[in-house]
Amino acid sequence: MTAVVLADAAILDRVLTATRPICHAGLTRPAYARFHAARMKTEWGRRFQHTFALMDGAHLLASAVRYDLAAVLDGRAVRVCGIGSVLTDSAHRGRGHARTLIETLLDHAARDGADVALLFTRSGDRTLTGFEPIGMTDVALAVVDTPRPGAPMTLVRGGEARDLAAVVAMGQTRAGPFRFHLDRDADLVQYAITTKRLLAGLGPAGARHLQYFIAEEGVTAAAYVVVSIAGHRWTIEECGDRDPSGARVGALLQALIAREPVERRPTIGGWLPPRFVPPQTTVTTTPSTVVMMMRSLNSTPVPGLRGDDVLYWRSDLF
Q1: Where are the alpha helices (DSSP H) in the chain?
Q2: For a surface tag, which of 17, 234, 251, 301 has the fewest beta carbons within 10 Å of its beta carbon?
Q3: Residue 188 CB partners (closer than 8 Å, separation 6+)
Q4: pTM for this model (two decimals)
Q5: Which CATH architecture has domain 137-287?
Q6: Which CATH architecture has domain 2-134+291-316?
Q7: What secondary structure does DSSP assign to 41-53, as a single string?
Q8: pLDDT tens digits, residue range 110-125?
């Protein structure tokens, strides 16, 4: 007789052992346990992240993580059930256990008042029914050379907890025109940045770094960037700017590059809001291999959304 249970203690240990190679292959097993424990100590993780397992007696059949998110869809506040880190135990694959677990979690979420379900998958993976795909867009960003090389006249410092309110405000302003976006509060932003810091700090020495910098005006953050660095590959996890043009974000990127003038220019990628092109940069776009999948729960309709209708940051991927 199968049952879906909240994974804790011994079951959670088995889930982490099974999911580590798939979800975060760069971490050792002890580091992955520390990563999970640290995320669950954040205010947002403690309240809104839950790991579940499909069990048959003592046998672990499948596992997944449920995230309880707040979002805005066509101007209406909605509750979102996000599903991530889905894995079927290798000894029990091919029997529909992951589908059973996901459908059970969605049924529970609908009864708890969730309006829509959200998950991310690779292009071409359409194993679940009822989900509408929303194609996302990868950007490749190049910082343009200037007649006067070096850092711009911008006050730059490391991001701190006191900047969260300004970061949230910038995000709310930027997200306003989009049909779908997460309602990101300070706890969620802190959770997202903490997750990226943990991945860098707990991974192999020197393999990854995280840069979180603020452009300041007076004593207030006027722009920010969060960038994951692996070798010469930079990934913009999220960013924000009080200037609609994104000029301060461009200046931040110029300043970060100018810190290592003898190094070759990095390759910069990520997800950016459509039509967000800082004037110091050129941007090229390609369809992402990651596809957002959305499904209605309860009576909330899921209208046809395109990638341009959605604002979603890579730091919020689950």
Answers
A1: 9-23, 29-41, 43-48, 97-111, 164-175, 186-202, 247-258
A2: 301
A3: 44, 69, 182, 316
A4: 0.93
A5: 3-Layer(aba) Sandwich (3.40)
A6: 3-Layer(aba) Sandwich (3.40)
A7: HSHHHHHHEEEEE
A8: 999 999 999 998 765 5
